[in-house]
Amino acid sequence: MPEATHFIGNQWVAPAKSPAISPIAVLDPSDGQPFSRIARGDAEDIDRAVKAARAAFEGDWGRLAAAERGRLLYALANTLARHHEELAQIEARDTGKPLKQARADAAAIVRYFEFYAGAADKLHGETIPYQQGFTVFTVREPHGVTGHIIPWNYPLQIFGRSVAAALATGNACVVKPAEDACLSLLRVAELSLEAGLPPGALNIVTGYGAEAGAALARHPGIDHISFTGSPATGTLISQMAAENHTPVTLELGGKSPQIIFADADMQAVLPVVVNAIVQNAGQTCSAGSRLLVQRDAYESVLAHLAEAFAALRVGPSQDDLDLGPLISARQQQRVWDFLSEAQHDGVAVMSQGEVVGSAPESGFYQAPTLLRDVPESHRLAREEVFGPVLAAMPFTDEAHAVRLANGTPYGLAAGVWTCDGARQMRLARSIRAGQVFINNYGAGGGVELPFGGMKHSGHGREKGFEALYGFTTLKTVAIRHG
Ligand code: ADP
After folding, report:
1. Dihedral (C-alpha) 398, 401, 402, 405: value to the nearest 10 degrees?
2. Is 0.90 surpassed by the pTM of this model?
């Protein structure tokens, strides 16, 4: 693929304003140095992509039988699987994540395309019993042209969960990946050619959020927007989409609690609790970033966690350690700001991991940090850091745990550790979050599990069969036949 081009209608296209507008440099977070360039798209590029998608939706792609769409998605899944290691290497360099995480992400995108390939011809409407003389049925139809604004933390995975479901239901997609990490998705687009996806079904325009992203969100030719990213950007996107009454699915992050009761199986708890915050250097929407521990077990759990944190190693993606760098200097500064605020307010750092000596000074590194006794009203107990920072606090009883768990504006995920079956059920029902995990956290992230938020974590669901409802609209047909 030529450098600094968009993927529109199965062609690599230079930006409309090229060469007047220079490409965007792509930095390797492991050393902070530029190693590639992407096109800086604008409203004109987005418009071209929307037109290509519309033509596909109204043409060959839109007319394909559901089973045929499934076959094409399956072909793409197989192509992606054959290029698994290459995609993982691209993702690791572009995002800085350790290779093992990038390999897991490259495997996950294959699973998304497999899952939605199989689902393509299994979504159907219903017949509705109605008055004598009528037959009434519902039909699930694609929205048409769907817009997908993708963040930089898991490009392959988030593209997979949203685009595979949208294509499976017959939509044509326009994707705006994040300016900080989009190289793997451009390679996926190239591989979609090899898999035989018809022109216009998948289009990718790269560029800045405020330019290409905003142009996509407010384009009148977009019939649905799915967005994963920060709450502030989510609000802007909702406002822009509202100008055209375009439906939106928003996934906006969280401050998800991991709740440990004194009767929990502590051997099982500790590694999971650590992984839930250090995975992807804490840059995960559903990171378990608050640790609530029952008072009786608080000191002992924290002592074990402090040891585990101290043993964590941070380094370049190729070293494949516990954590890689953060995505950018901006993200690093954001985490530093949170930590200096903690220090200023007397919140104690209990333990930190280590950035290894081989990590270049110019990379965007941050040691994982365990904070104890974080007051429930503190910003660190309420706001998303999006870095490897775990805020611990004690609770007295079940009611207190539930109050703390629900005490932030977010509601994306929660983990509950207890051996008491009745309590497991009570917490599963009383926690306001889109996913509640009992005696685990994340359940391995299976593509089958619907995912999305309550409260400020967003609305709509992606993943699983549920996503197919979000990427379709329902038509009721009532036939009067006497
Ligand atoms: P971050 O601040 O961590 O980069 P964002 O939520 O801003 O997170 O970014 C997620 C995605 O949203 C990226 O693809 C980004 O380019 C895009 N984006 C950012 N600002 C806007 C905007 N004003 N309109 C549309 N998309 C945007």
Report:
1. -160
2. yes
